[in-house]
Design brief:
The chain is an alpha+beta fold and 252 residues long. The chain has one domain: Glutaredoxin (3-Layer(aba) Sandwich), CATH 3.40.30.10. Helices cover 44% and strands 14% of the residues. Pfam families: Thioredoxin_4.
């Protein structure tokens, strides 16, 4: 896979929100990775460096009450949040270590969920990348485990609320166990899944999808009528009205 060199984009005077820039591997390269992982899975192998936690304890997690208030009562299925019959779908490309992803998650996203997802108008999908570094990779693998238990949105929101300094090694098995427990997951099963080769597939697939849409920063979004086709959404992350305008245009 080609090298990935993240950097922070300075805010421009044109109102563009700050995002985390990425250099994506080519789709061909990603396809090779996906094929290799499929081979590993079929042979029962694993190349995951994250140990599977079996403890029901783990790190003390912050923001549990706020996260539950935002997500309780909304259907989740894998990486999807909301009614499968919703007219509009928004796909978010994120990296769990991206500070701007966190900013969007704790400011603009709750408004959109309350206004559009909870009311059945919009379904959201997560495509978690892992370009910032090793802690992103471990976090993404934990997200795959959460997706398998239909808890990826809870896990992701809690991860942001407990986000640490990039690549300091803070994404330990104890940290992940704490997130799993706070998200209401089976901690042991999640740890086992995260330690499997299967947990690597979603990030590789997300990278391929990002290349398809020309995504070069996080968070980034594509939007369209559910089932597609989808188009890249150019909007300021802190501009709830910009998101609403794009959604409302499709709801007409």
């Amino acid at each position: 896979m080609s090298s990935k060199t993240p950097k922070t984009t300075p805010g421009s005077g044109g109102g563009d929100a700050k995002r985390r820039n990425i250099i994506l591997a080519s789709i061909v390269g990603v396809a090779v990775v996906v094929v290799a992982l499929v081979i590993i899975l079929s042979s029962g192998g694993s190349d995951n460096k994250t140990s599977g936690g079996s403890s029901a304890g783990g790190t003390q997690i912050q923001g549990v009450t706020e996260s539950k208030a935002m997500l309780d009562g909304i259907a989740q299925e894998g990486r999807f949040l909301g009614d499968p019959k919703a007219k509009v779908t928004i796909v978010e490309f994120n990296d769990l270590q991206c500070p701007f992803c966190k900013e969007f998650a704790v400011t603009t996203l709750p408004v959109l969920i309350d206004k559009y997802v909870r009311t059945g108008k919009v379904r959201m999908e997560l495509r978690t990348l892992a370009f910032i570094g090793p802690d992103s990779e471990k976090g993404a693998e934990g997200g795959a485990a959460a997706s398998a238990q239909n808890k990826e949105w809870d896990y992701t929101d809690l991860f942001y609320r407990n986000q640490g300094q990039e690549n300091t090694g803070y994404v330990t098995s104890g940290f992940l166990d704490g997130l799993y427990k706070a998200a209401g997951m089976d901690v042991t099963a999640a740890g086992t899944f995260a330690a499997s080769a299967k947990a690597k597939l979603p990030a590789a697939e997300a990278q391929a999808e990002a290349g398809k849409y020309g995504i070069s920063s996080t968070p980034s979004f594509v939007i369209g009528l559910t089932g597609g086709p989808y188009e890249k959404l150019e909007v300021n992350l802190s501009d709830e009205k910009g998101f609403s305008a794009a959604i409302d245009a499709l709801l007409k």
